[in-house]
Amino acid sequence: MSKVIIEATDIKRGFPMGGDTFWALKGLSFSIQESELTILQGRSGSGKTTMMNILGALDYPTSGDILFDGNSIVKMSDNKRDRLRSKDIGFVFQSVALVGMMTALENVEFILRINKEVAAKERRKRAEACLEKVGLASRMHHMPAELSGGEQQRVAIARAIAHRPKVIFADEPTAQLDTGTGMQVVKIFKELIENEGATIVMTTHDPGLMEVADAVYELEDGEIVNGS
Predict the structure, then answer these.
(1) How far is residue 228 from each of residues 38, 39, 193, measured CA to CA in Å?
(2) Is the pLDDT of residue 228 over 80?
């Protein structure tokens, strides 16, 4: 039976706007189960990316708390938050942000150089294994410009899982892809859950992806209007 790995309680996030405050999040409370695919769904401006950034310790809420594996992210020191992101969290962004002068393999290996948990002699082996998991064994020595959009996104996924995080946050990872290629990306996420026990949290505005999720939270104007 899965356990709760992330619990958000009454999360509010306000941004100064003139002499007033714009509330991007208006008191969100929900939980994310371990080894499941959870989708935050909503239109642009609904607050889903803001929520994702807070869940991933990239931003602070104005009020409320986030428990990650039982520990409050909000109360962590900056050093502990940095360590959490480098050890237990992986990110896949809509803009894949691959280094153009590096091969797919070098892009994945580079992130492991930043992560001090991984020994130097293990980096290449692990990078190759991650690219194999996403179906790019034959493309790992290609430059990003030589890869399709779907292949670039798969490199980004390999990079995100290379340090074996507990949770992978994927912000609109299929937004720039056609429907078929987008479903291939989601299939990789599901395989990571089934084979690796990964936990995936993904934002999307694509209603066609809802049926593959284990849990869906629909956001509108900074509030959860539907959750299942």
Answers:
(1) 10, 10, 19
(2) no
Domains of the chain: 4-227 (3.40.50.300)
- Closest by alpha carbon to 150, among 161, 139, 141? 139
State the pTM of this model.
0.91
Q: For 82, how many CA atoms within 13 A lie in the half-sphere containing its CB?
A: 7
The closest alpha carbon to 223, from 7, 8, 4, 38, belongs to 8
Residue 174 confidence class, pLDDT cut points 50, 70, 90:
confident
What is d(CA 84, CA 155) in angstroms, rounded to the nearest whole number?
22
Q: What angle do CA 38, 94, 21 make, to 5 degrees?
A: 80
Determine whether 28 is exposed, middle or buried from the number of CB atoms within 10 Å of its CB (0-12, 13-18, 19+): buried
CA 205 to mean position of chain CA atoms? 15
Q: For the chain, give me the number of helices (H) and strands (E)?
A: 6, 10
- What are 120-163's pLDDT values in tens digits? 788 999 999 999 999 999 999 999 999 998 899 899 999 999 98
Token pair in block for residue 202 = 């993904």
Bridge partners for 15 per DSSP: 22
Q: Distance between CA 162 and CA 192 in Å, rounded?
A: 12
The pLDDT, as a whole number, for residue 89 is 94
Helix 149-161 with 104-114: angle, nearest 10 deg = 30
pLDDT at position 1? 60
Q: Is the pLDDT of residue 178 over 80?
A: yes
